[in-house]
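Sequence design from tokenized structure. All designs in this work follow the same two-part layout: the structure record, then the generated sequence. An example of the structure record is given first.
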């Protein structure tokens, strides 16, 4: 094997500068940098990277085309498999997917596939490359989609290709789901999401905002007015610790509430935007996934003096993307391993004042797994002004409780068959609503595959 060149590093905003703004952290590759990085790909006979991608992007071909400066061709190739590469290139856990299986990883650093995907997506958008799609004529058939996150958007894009009339219903005032309201601007600039949504609308997808299915329009109305329904409501209801002192205290947020205020309602632009948010001086974020990193990094940008991540396992078990954890630590977020809150204590005004924590140890179970268990007598206290709980989410019950014929499991996750069909014929589901909280690319893949299943159902094609 020829000597492998090192990865082309990406320039980033320095940590001390970026904690004072919400601008993107990575600056993106220049054309020359992208060419150099793509040329590191050794063009494997069996590209393991592609099988590890949930939407099977032609990564090897993309790398070849970029290395030959055929940017337009690379862009069109990527768009064939993934309608939203600018988003997935920035937020996918690449180290666990494509880059995790890149053959170069055995000898050196894998090809920077995610950053090349983001580069080519940005290049295509900047050069206004039009994706020519042959839209067939099926406008007499109507599909309703509930939720405009990645699953709903990907399903809409694919259903439109088949020519169906598509309407998305979205409860919020902006389309994009978590891409819009959850993931902060410094990781995923919102003009990118807006641009992708606008392109979809230009293709004829109708998006009805400020419209909650189950409240403004009922499920049975959607069923009677459409030939198929796709449920992509995500999993937006937060889980809480359920410990003493939690409920009545001010200053205890769910990560969703905190991030929606900050991102969607632009609290970081207060007073220009009329959304106040009080983060206090000392913030504790419970959990260590992407959501926790986003909340912690948002809190430090909103002026908190100290931000602490509280995690009951050790860093290596943190479910966050490696890059986000790395960026958070660079930004001065303090990571506490093997600790777990057991009680919250408030002051006389009803605000959180301090929390009681137990030290934990990882105890081996019969099946070999390690379970965090409290160490008896290890409790200690920590003063805090704000607590943000980022402990995972489950599907929101608002709509589903009014449509009991749609079967769900004990966690409220919609049950689907191998064709994404729910217990109601003609109603399909995908994304976090049908898999539990997962990833953007999984939601995109399920949206796209569900569209194929819907097409088969409506046309009788196989
Ligand atoms: C803060 C945060 C950070 C994340 N970071 C990453 C990351 O870095 N990488 C990654 O891969 N994944 C990440 N994820 C997970 C990822 O965003 C989700 O897995 C993905 O967005 C799921 O897509 P979805 O389309 O199923 O649902 P969502 O994105 O949740 O979209 C569902 C949409 O449906 C709408 N809706 C709900 N109920 C109704 C109703 N009754 N009527 C109308 N509309 C309704 C909601 O308002 C929402 O817009 C993150 C999640 C969060 C919360
Ligand atoms: S596995 Fe790595 S080296 Fe092989 S084709 Fe994919 S990106 Fe290129």
């Amino acid at each position: 094997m020829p000597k492998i060149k090192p990865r082309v590093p990406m320039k980033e905003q320095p940590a001390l500068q970026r904690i004072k703004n919400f601008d993107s952290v990575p600056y993106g590759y220049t054309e020359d940098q992208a060419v150099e990085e793509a040329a590191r790909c050794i063009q494997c006979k069996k590209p393991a990277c592609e099988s590890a991608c949930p939407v099977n992007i032609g990564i090897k071909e993309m790398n070849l085309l970029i290395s030959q400066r055929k940017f337009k061709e690379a862009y069109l190739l990527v768009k064939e498999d993934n309608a939203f590469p600018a988003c997935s290139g920035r937020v996918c856990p690449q180290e666990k997917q494509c880059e995790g299986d890149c053959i170069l990883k055995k000898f050196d650093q894998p090809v920077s596939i995610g950053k090349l995907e983001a580069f080519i997506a940005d290049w295509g958008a900047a050069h206004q490359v039009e994706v020519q799609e042959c839209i067939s004529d099926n406008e007499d058939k109507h599909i309703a989609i509930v939720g405009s996150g990645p699953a709903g958007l990907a399903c809409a894009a694919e259903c439109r290709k088949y020519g169906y009339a598509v309407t998305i219903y979205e409860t919020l005032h902006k389309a994009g789901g978590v891409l819009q309201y959850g993931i902060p601007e410094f990781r995923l600039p919102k003009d990118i999401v807006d641009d992708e949504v606008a392109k979809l609308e230009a293709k004829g997808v109708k998006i009805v905002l400020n419209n909650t299915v189950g409240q403004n329009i009922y499920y049975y109305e959607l069923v009677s007015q459409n030939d198929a329904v796709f449920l992509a409501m995500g999993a937006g209801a937060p889980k809480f610790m359920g410990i003493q002192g939690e409920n009545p205290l001010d200053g205890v947020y769910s990560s969703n509430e905190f991030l929606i205020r900050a991102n969607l309602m632009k609290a970081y632009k207060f007073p220009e935007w009329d959304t106040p948010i009080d983060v206090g001086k000392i913030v504790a974020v419970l959990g260590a996934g992407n959501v926790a990193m986003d909340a912690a990094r948002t809190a430090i940008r909103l002026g908190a003096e100290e931000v602490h991540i509280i995690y009951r396992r050790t860093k290596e078990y943190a479910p966050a993307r490696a890059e986000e954890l790395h960026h958070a630590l660079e930004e001065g977020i303090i990571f506490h391993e093997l600790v777990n809150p057991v009680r919250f204590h408030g002051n006389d005004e009803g605000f959180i004042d301090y929390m009681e924590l137990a030290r934990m140890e990882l105890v081996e179970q019969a099946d070999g797994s390690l379970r965090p268990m409290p160490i008896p007598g290890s409790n200690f206290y920590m003063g805090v002004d704000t607590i943000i709980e980022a402990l995972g989410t489950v599907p929101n019950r608002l709509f589903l409780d009014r449509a009991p014929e749609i079967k769900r499991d004990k966690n409220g996750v919609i049950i689907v068959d191998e064709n994404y069909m729910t217990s109601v014929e003609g109603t399909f589901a995908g994304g976090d609503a049908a898999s539990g909280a997962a990833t953007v690319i999984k939601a995109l893949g399920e949206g796209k595959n569900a569209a194929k299943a819907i097409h088969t159902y409506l046309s009788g094609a196989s």
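DSSP finds 18 helices and 16 strands in the chain. We note this feature because it recurs in several other targets discussed in the main text.
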